[in-house]
């Protein structure tokens, strides 16, 4: 078997392992990833009352991003941290596999755990608020890219954390900060100038931009820019993970 074929065989095996893990935990993943965003949607419906369709669409999209942050950054980061310090990666380190495949399998796992809640909030949010969001097939690769850009942060955070307790604290802080103090639930112009500048260096700002555009008016010229920025964030996160992770040593 040549190196090219071996690369994809390794990747396929690791992907199948991650699929088996997700399938075993599927009910828990769906419940955990959906309850908080849906409860938030219902609470905001009681709190805000009558709102414009534009505001309601932003709240739905914001909670879709919240669900990605919850599973792809918060839970995934903590999960990887506990596995790292519990010695669970010893099994993988004993296998003759490439580091790139190991990293891609973790990112794939993050996408698998984040995708169900993304779809559930997208579906139930429209039912709760009575809003019809725009859908086109280009949304599918864009959504995967959006999830991928956030999942990279979760993987990096889990591996770089000095201990699981620290991961838990940082993950909870980032979840609340990014959700409520960056343009996820609200527009960028409504934030203080300091938070606006901080928002520009966070991938979730561009995730919110691209999803809001795709789900309200469809693909536009500005979408190209946001997608390009998300690709850059995704590449940077992968390079940082690849550079910083010495998982065979661990």
**Secondary-structure content class:** mainly alpha
The proportion of residues in beta strands is under 5%
Task: Provide the succession of SSEs.
Answer: HHHHHHHHHH
Oligomer: single chain
Shape, please?
Answer: globular
- Tally of DSSP helical segments: 10
Poorly predicted segments: none
State the helical fraction: over 70%
Task: Give the gist of this structure.
The protein is mainly alpha-helical. The chain has one domain (3-244).
Protein described:
The protein is mainly alpha-helical. It has one domain (about 5-245). Helix content is about 80%, strand content about 0%. It contains 10 helices and no strands. The protein has helices at about 5-25, 25-50, 55-85, 90-95, 100-130, 140-160, 165-180, 195-200, 205-215, 220-245. Helix 5 packs across helix 6 (about 140-160). The longest helix is centred in the N-terminal third of the chain and has 34 residues, at about 55-85. It is globular, with a radius of gyration of 18 Å. The mean pLDDT is about 85.
